[in-house]
Amino acid sequence: MTRADLSVRLAPWLYTVVLFAIWEGAVRAFNVPAFFLPPPSTIGRAIYEYWPAIYRNSLFTLWATMLGFALAVGLGLALGLLVGWSRNIYAGLYP
Fold it and tell me: Per residue of the chain (95 residues), what is the pLDDT tens digit?
């Protein structure tokens, strides 16, 4: 692996760390209230502290999202087939 390849592979990580450092510094330097824009360190601490609840609720949200996506795909496919197979419905919807 060449040096250029390594720098390209590390660029997203480096930029992310720099972004978080700038964010942390700006929030602290300008005394931005935590309820308006919390620093990354506070967010990380809250994620660690409330991880069981975050994990449980994230799984529920993922399940609900996947169920909604499956219903949308299934109903969309069914409606598309219905419109495509029926000349009357097609003519009524696409005059």
Answer: 888 899 999 999 999 999 999 999 999 999 999 999 999 999 999 999 999 999 999 999 999 999 999 999 999 999 999 999 999 999 998 87
Query: CA-to-CA distance for 55 and 40, rounded, in angstroms?
Result: 19
C-alpha 5/C-alpha 10 separation (Å) is 9
Q: 60 vs 51, 56, 57, 66, CA distance in Å?
A: 14, 6, 5, 10
Query: What DSSP state is assigned to residue 74?
Result: H
* C-alpha dihedral, 74 to 76 to 79 to 80, nearest 10°: -110
